[in-house]
Amino acid sequence: PDAEAVAAADALQLRLTKPPGALGALEPLASKLAGLAGVCPPPLPEPAAVAIFAGDHGVHAQGVTPWPQEVTGQMVGNFLAGGAVVNAFARQAGVSVTVIDVGVATGDSDYKVRTGTRDFAVEPALTRAEVVAALEVGIAVARNLVEDGAKALLTGDMGIANTTPAAALIAAFTGVPAEEVTGRGTGIDDRTLAHKTWVIEGALAMHRPDSADGIDVLAKVGGLEHAAIAGFILGGAAARVPVILDGVIAASAALAAVAIAPDSIHAMVAGHRSAEPGATIALKHLGLSPLVDLGLRLGEGTGAVLAHGLVASAVRVLHEVATFDSAGVSEK
Amino acid sequence: PDAEAVAAADALQLRLTKPPGALGALEPLASKLAGLAGVCPPPLPEPAAVAIFAGDHGVHAQGVTPWPQEVTGQMVGNFLAGGAVVNAFARQAGVSVTVIDVGVATGDSDYKVRTGTRDFAVEPALTRAEVVAALEVGIAVARNLVEDGAKALLTGDMGIANTTPAAALIAAFTGVPAEEVTGRGTGIDDRTLAHKTWVIEGALAMHRPDSADGIDVLAKVGGLEHAAIAGFILGGAAARVPVILDGVIAASAALAAVAIAPDSIHAMVAGHRSAEPGATIALKHLGLSPLVDLGLRLGEGTGAVLAHGLVASAVRVLHEVATFDSAGVSEK
Hints:
The first copy, chain A, is α/β, with parallel strands linked by helices. Chain A contains 14 helices and 5 strands.
């Protein structure tokens, strides 16, 4: 990040017509984005684009969720028809929606790397080459959206069973036991939760992923949408465009992105705190504080889209608010 | 509230293409607003209007803040010129801004009840007639905005020293000691905080406000903007339009509104959690959970405006999201 731009933003915030620090977490956020852009004020994060990466998971065969795998492809259709929650939120926020099938079990897609991952309870989910291909999909999507004018990128995901690889990734990257990072996803019962945790523990013990090697971890226990989102973050960071992270899938992908390119952290904004316990553990590991904390556990990019208005508001302050001098307001 | 509309909203949420409860706090919020409107789905809360009620405070003479009183009037000018943080946030959110001088020490205004309150460290801040006049200002502003098409009302405030009456109101209505509800406002030091707390304790001991009589409490230790905001809430509730509360000033006014008309609670949405300790205590007493929790302590309506997009998103789900049936998505 550009330290001069951060310092300029910090100094500007003190001259604006408000008590110092009165905007709480929004002030360091605006300064961080000045550092990312290398200019103060940083660009308004508009227009913004949410990219929903969809994939299926071999580990679904282990019974980690009651939802049938076909729902992934059905929900892709729902996104394209504009009928999902993320579509409604995006219309409210004025955010564009792009859907990328990087690994759904059915259907055709220019971006599809594979029709779902292998079952990581049995074998590695992906080859290194497949991980690289999915990362490149994410990088390309980010680059295309930025070329088309996007000033903020928002992560979205769809994939029945995808909180299972997300928990495995978070356990692998943070070293926190599977028991603590594994959650109920769409709302599984105690017995399924215990089984899901056991599947993750077993896979980590079998594959022994190398937490310093992001591609290795993604290949052994990741997912295609997780890898593509990691690439999407890297692509946004390379373009110095803020990437607003959605929930637990994005948080697990962010750990992979940081393992691959540590500087990508400077582009990341934590959109919200998912109800999944692994999300909080991952964000803490990354040193990121979430903006929205309303118990959402839907994915799709819904939390990132909700957060977009908060990010834009934080930046807009640096563009538009009068200083004590310019407004003729007395200081204490 | 209309129990049938609430039940219809609860039932609809279960048929939409998302796991049950996956939208966390946004689901009961949307159902609450269906109950308020008496129809499911309830109207989208757009257009929305933030009303900033401004007033000065006799208790400023006690040295409860380092900011000069003239800043209240100067900030009114800043709001009208569009240069304050609330103006920037409102432009981001597409919310209109109305400024109402109900009690600033200087300047003319059709709505001014008095040029600031009396010093409640010495005598009651207001007469009952003055409180009623300020309540009527708030009711009239709410009615006018709704007549002009507003589908959501957002509270805003400006008044140097106004966290002092807010803390006194919260202590009086909740019975929680002044020590626990009094905060640093714009950021006062330990010594000023101790003095501010002592002033509030002394006023409560001297005036003994009757917590069952909202007008009595407002008259003895309130402020003109606090009373006007209480009226604004009552006006919104009477029109069955949601009122998004800003921070600690709004929370103290909400306690007064509930004391005057308990059913007004059904129109209230807690926009955010102010950094002021009294705000959390008041919201807990009201049974409201804040939507935004980012450490803001500015007032002006900034927290309410930030929350507006979240409220609109919650309601939009009920209007626009496909059902499992209509989208052809399988259920678990």
